[in-house]
């Protein structure tokens, strides 16, 4: 049996999330929407995933306003989003009232199709989202996060799909976020799903291993109804198969998409130019890499790990981290590597390698995971590690959100008058710190997006790493570590040279003039290095999230005294000895480095 294949294009969400760190701005989306709306896509993925975070954190755009503008500009095309089940768009589980409110507002503002997944494939974490989508009269797409392990079998995936069908989903998506599918495995899984259920099956596969287009063809031959693609100028590698390529491949066959190939090619030329604007966010780790079939690390996760290792001056240890990730994943019961579990596993592997000892530091998120706070692990976790992490605390076996009290009213009270709408309250709910900062800056009229480096034109002076390409340095000055990115944009022949200089991610445009001497700072005020038994320090650079003790407090050995954050993961810092807090040298928000004395205990 053959049939027309429909297409969801990811150009406005996952394509630039996979290749350009989710940095595409709304101003570069709207001019092409008229043509996108005429293509005839089944849907356009435009929202969710990391776009909400990037809008608020880096672009200083209201993500809700982006959605409304896209809905107005794309009146004839379904708009689709990626929703992390009970996690919504954040990194923790939210109470049911927040989930229902978020879905309702997303529907009102323009989302027609909700692709709903849980990082653990724990279907209990999908129920409330599915109910909310159906209550809003929208399309609920239940999602299988595809991965491979001793416990991930076709029978297990089919069982999950049947449970989601019983919950009322309208279609099933196979979400291959890491590019682990192979062509024949894809055909087998799709055939099994189509045989078991009367629902449409959609295949979403990243091309990290270079085989995604073959996977999609095998899926189609075995009954798949829809494929996810990306406009070719932002396709392939850690993105998706090119739309034009798949449309051309199926053209004139019984599976013909019926899409206008010439029009899509025009759109591709537009995004070819747009991509250049975001050249500073390109990574060398977004191309085809078959190592994913061994280490199972999604491409976006690899590029993040690369940046984190650069910040530590340890990029040469990437292979060690990639080798450690499957080991941590096995210890944790083989979770699929997708947000937030990819960050949880990747960060713990990162700590294991850089600390030189496995699980010397265990992140708070790993502790919560091992306690069952993210849901049921797919396989058996390492019980020794669990006890090391949570001690005598109980492991929960209920749906994690069952333990959460309604919190929407509390969040509404916390953000107060800064929130001008219920959407603003939900922005704060997703990301309390950066959400509040965004709303404060909006109130003050000081919202300023991060600087985009000029597109290399061939007329400027070449930067040290090549014309227009940032050269990155990790510099230690008097015990302080800085990451410095320098991009040259000067004009040949001038006595001055203009550069963009970014220090720890804060960009400035500066002008360098020849000087005979540079005098560094005195280093006054820097923290001393730990030497006494009661000196509390960290093993990783990061930020202080919370200080749990004050001067004069009595503490026990092993008691948590600080919480630090690095790479979006929180870690407790414990007292090395029992005693009395003699001095506290840090406050919430401070940047700290390894070996510095943060608290003194005597």
TrEMBL record:
Domain Pyruvate carboxyltransferase: 5-265
Keyword annotations: Biotin
TM region(s), chain numbering: none
The keyword Protein transport is annotated on this UniProt entry: no
Gene3D superfamilies: 2.40.50.100, Aldolase class I
Gene Ontology, cellular component aspect: cytoplasm
Stored CDD domains: biotinyl_domain, DRE_TIM_PC_TC_5S
Record flagged with keyword Membrane: no
Domain of life: Bacteria
Gene Ontology molecular function: oxaloacetate decarboxylase activity; pyruvate carboxylase activity
Any GO BP: gluconeogenesis
Matches recorded under SUPFAM superfamilies: Aldolase, post-HMGL domain-like, Single hybrid motif
Start and end residues of each Lipoyl-binding domain: 527-602
Pfam families to which the protein is assigned, alphabetical: Biotin_lipoyl, HMGL-like, PYC_OADA
PANTHER family cross-referenced by the UniProt entry: PYRUVATE CARBOXYLASE (PTHR43778), PYRUVATE CARBOXYLASE, MITOCHONDRIAL (PTHR43778:SF2)
Protein name: Oxaloacetate decarboxylase alpha chain
Protein encoded by which gene: oadA
């Amino acid at each position: 049996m053959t049939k027309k294949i429909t297409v969801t294009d990811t150009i406005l969400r996952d394509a630039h999330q996979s290749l350009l760190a989710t940095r595409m701005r709304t101003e570069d989306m709207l001019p092409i929407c008229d043509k996108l709306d005429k293509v005839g896509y089944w849907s356009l993925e435009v929202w969710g995933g990391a776009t909400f975070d990037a809008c608020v954190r880096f672009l200083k755009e209201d993500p809700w306003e982006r959605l409304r503008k896209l809905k107005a500009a794309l009146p004839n095309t379904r708009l689709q989003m990626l929703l992390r089940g009970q996690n919504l768009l954040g990194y923790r589980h939210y109470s049911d009232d927040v989930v229902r409110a978020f879905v309702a507002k997303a529907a009102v503002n323009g989302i027609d199709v909700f692709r709903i997944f849980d990082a653990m494939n724990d279907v209990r974490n999908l129920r409330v989202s599915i109910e909310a989508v159906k209550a809003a009269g929208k399309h609920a797409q239940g999602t299988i996060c595809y991965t491979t392990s001793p416990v991930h079998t076709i029978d297990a995936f089919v069982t999950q799909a049947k449970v989601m069908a019983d919950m009322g989903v309208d279609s099933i998506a196979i979400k291959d976020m890491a590019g682990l599918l192979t062509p024949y495995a894809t055909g087998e899984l799709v055939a099994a799903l189509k045989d078991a259920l009367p629902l449409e099956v959609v295949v979403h596969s990243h091309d990290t291993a270079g085989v995604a287009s073959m996977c999609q063809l095998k899926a189609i031959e075995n009954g798949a109804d829809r494929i996810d693609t990306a406009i070719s100028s932002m396709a392939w590698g850690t993105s998706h198969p090119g739309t034009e390529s798949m449309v051309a491949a199926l053209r004139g066959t019984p599976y013909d998409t019926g899409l206008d190939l010439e029009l899509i090619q025009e759109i591709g030329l537009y995004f070819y130019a747009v991509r250049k604007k975001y050249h500073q966010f390109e990574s060398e780790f977004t191309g085809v890499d078959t190592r994913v079939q061994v280490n199972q690390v999604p491409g976006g996760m690899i590029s993040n790990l690369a940046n984190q290792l650069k910040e530590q001056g340890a990029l040469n240890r990437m292979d060690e981290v990639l080798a450690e990730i499957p080991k941590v994943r096995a210890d944790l019961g083989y979770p699929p590597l997708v947000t937030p579990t990819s960050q949880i596993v990747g960060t713990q592997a990162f700590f294991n390698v850089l600390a030189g000892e496995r699980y010397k530091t265990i992140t708070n998120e790993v502790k919560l995971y091992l306690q069952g706070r993210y849901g049921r692990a797919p396989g058996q976790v390492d019980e020794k590690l669990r006890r090391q992490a949570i001690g005598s605390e109980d492991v929960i076996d209920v749906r994690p959100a069952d333990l959460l009290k309604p919190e929407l009213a509390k969040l509404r009270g916390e953000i107060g008058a800064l929130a001008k709408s219920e959407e603003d309250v939900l922005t704060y709910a997703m990301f309390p710190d950066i959400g509040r900062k965004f709303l404060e800056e909006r109130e003050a009229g000081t919202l300023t997006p991060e600087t985009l480096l000029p597109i290399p034109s061939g007329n400027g002076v070449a930067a040290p790493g090549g014309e227009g390409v940032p050269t990155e340095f990790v510099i230690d000055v008097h015990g302080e570590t800085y990451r410095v990115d320098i991009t040259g944009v000067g004009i040949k022949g001038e006595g001055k040279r203009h550069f963009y200089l970014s220090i720890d991610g804060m960009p400035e445009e500066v002008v360098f003039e020849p000087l005979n001497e540079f005098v560094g700072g005195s280093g006054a005020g820097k923290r001393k290095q730990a030497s006494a038994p009661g000196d509390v320090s960290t093993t990783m650079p990061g930020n202080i999230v919370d200080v749990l003790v004050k001067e004069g407090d009595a503490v026990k050995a092993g008691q948590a005294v600080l919480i630090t954050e690095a790479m979006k993961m929180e870690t407790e810092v414990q007292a090395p000895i029992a005693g009395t807090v003699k001095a506290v040298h840090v406050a919430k928000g401070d940047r700290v480095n390894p070996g510095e004395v943060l608290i003194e205990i005597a």
